[in-house]
Amino acid sequence: MANHRFTNGKSLGTGIGLRVPHYDHILREKPAVDWFEIISENYMVAGGRPLAVLDAIMDQYQVVMHGVGLYPGNEKGIDRDHLRRLKKLIKRTNTPWISDHLCWGSVDGRVSHDLLPLPFTFDVARKTAENLKIAQDFLEIPLAMENVSSYAEFTMDEMTEWQFLAEVCELADVGILLDVNNIYVSSVNHDFDPLEYVNFIPSDRVAQIHIAGHSRYERFIIDTHDHPVIDPVWALYARAIERCGPTATLLEWDASIPSFEEVWQEAKKSEQWRNRNALDHQPGGDDAAAWVMAARFFSCPYHAPARCESAIYGVESRCGRTQCGIFRDSRQMDQARRGIERSWATGVVSPAVLVSIARFIGGRFSAVASHGRWWVVLGFDWAVSARKAIPELYLATLGWSLRVISGKFTTAR
Prior knowledge:
Elements: E1 14-17, H1 23-29, E2 35-39, H2 49-58, E3 62-66, H3 80-93, E4 98-101, E5 104-107, E6 110-116, H4 122-139, E7 143-146, H5 161-172, E8 175-179, H6 180-190, H7 194-200, E9 206-212, E10 215-216, E11 221-222, H8 231-244, E12 248-252, H9 260-268, H10 271-278, H11 287-295, H12 309-319, H13 330-346, H14 358-361, E13 364-370, E14 373-379, E15 410-411
Parallel strand pairs: 1-2, 1-12, 2-3, 3-4, 4-7, 7-8, 8-9, 9-12, 13-15
Antiparallel strand pairs: 5-6, 10-11, 13-14
């Protein structure tokens, strides 16, 4: 479940986008919608009907701002005038958090009005994170970054998209808006396993989830937001909820928009997975103890679990959830993961570093302690610097050389 600092302590259920064709119905009928998402740039205006309608909506409903023009990946940084106008709207809406896209979109003052993908390199991740830090500090509100759908790849990529998303959000210390339809679209276009993406994302940073429909063509699919959600996307959503717990969920439907009721009924389908998962993510319970017991089967003993989503995913991925010799089925693996989270949140078990898991997954790990919290970084084919540590605890990974060092781990306290 998302850390409350990424949602401003606000827990929301099912929402839909606030769209012009539905204005009159919403104001007249006042449907029982949990919340509405607005496109920030549509309301960054001096006056007129959009703001009048927004004010009327806010009298009845919670709204959350979602932008399409922040462009944190721009080489020359974020437009300060855009930030000032955005902050003015934030004060007006009282949005608990604000989201935008992990992309770039303008150069030399010319705006593409598109969400353009970034090269997945460490240098780009660092520069983008620096821009996001500036934005979040200025806006004074939690910021969440959305993964975009993409239709091209860069030959210079040094990591996968999900590794890049996690790296940027960790460096900038921002939340994630996980768009499972975008994951599916990109997985088809670029031929990767979408479950691998969902399994890797740090679940405690996921403040919100997007679901949507898309259009399929002969050689690729496009994120068009003009169809109902298909079953493979619902399956990804179900897995995301398993990992993240009940999370604010928004259905996007932006073209060929049907009636309000049709959109709302499609959005409400998400509730079956959130309701099913709600009890499993209540604080406390015995799952932490179950994980500690399972840990004894590893080759080197370690104490209680750290908060190490990526490490657990590594066991699932490389060993096979049903054949790794530790957990009998995927449910036990998920219980173990929740045990990790609960042990940290409730103080059931004091955190300690993971020291032996690589023998089972063929990977290497490096961990550092930062202000009393352990950060474990997955290092199958890539390694990153553990930049979250305070200076005296700083520990860089061994980088690419980890690939040729067998069974070695580095820890720091």
